[in-house]
Amino acid sequence: MDFVMPDDPFVLELLPEFVDTWITDMDEVYDNYVETENETELYRLAHTLKGSCLQFGINNIGNMGIELMAIARAHDWEKAKEYGVILKLSFKEIKNYLDNLQT
């Protein structure tokens, strides 16, 4: 996992909610964007994913956001489906990591 725990206590406080929000977004909108081949919305989601995850130190997902932007522009919907699975698993892995820190 390419994840660096932030030093900023405010960011640390926001991190669990941030991850939960992305898990919800991935479950609720990602598949729809891919199934409907909505390049614009998938690109926008990927761009937001990139910027927000890199700010939180979740570099592996931020880098996938960069790749997903290109995938959306290339209309590679099969690869986009694969990325959806990987992204969901990656966020759940971080959630599990954070949950284990609190126990």
Task: Describe the 3D structure.
It is a single chain. With 103 residues, this protein is mainly alpha-helical. The chain has four helices and no strands. It has helices at 9-35, 39-55, 59-73, 77-102. Helix 1 packs antiparallel against helix 2 (39-55) and helix 2 (39-55) packs antiparallel against helix 3. The longest helix has 27 residues, at 9-35. The radius of gyration is 14 Å and the shape is elongated. The chain starts with 8 loop residues before the first helix and ends with a helix.
Please tell me what the overall shape is.
Answer: elongated
Radius of gyration from the alpha-carbon trace, in angstroms:
14 Å
The fraction of residues assigned to DSSP E strands is under 5%
Instruction: Give the total of beta strands.
Output: 0
**SSE sequence, one letter per element:** HHHH
Distance between the termini: 20 Å
Number of domains: 1
User: SS-based structural class?
Assistant: mainly alpha
Low-confidence stretches: none
| Helical content (DSSP H or I, runs of 4+) | over 70%
Main sheet record: none
* DSSP helical segment count: 4
The average pLDDT value, as a whole number, equals 91
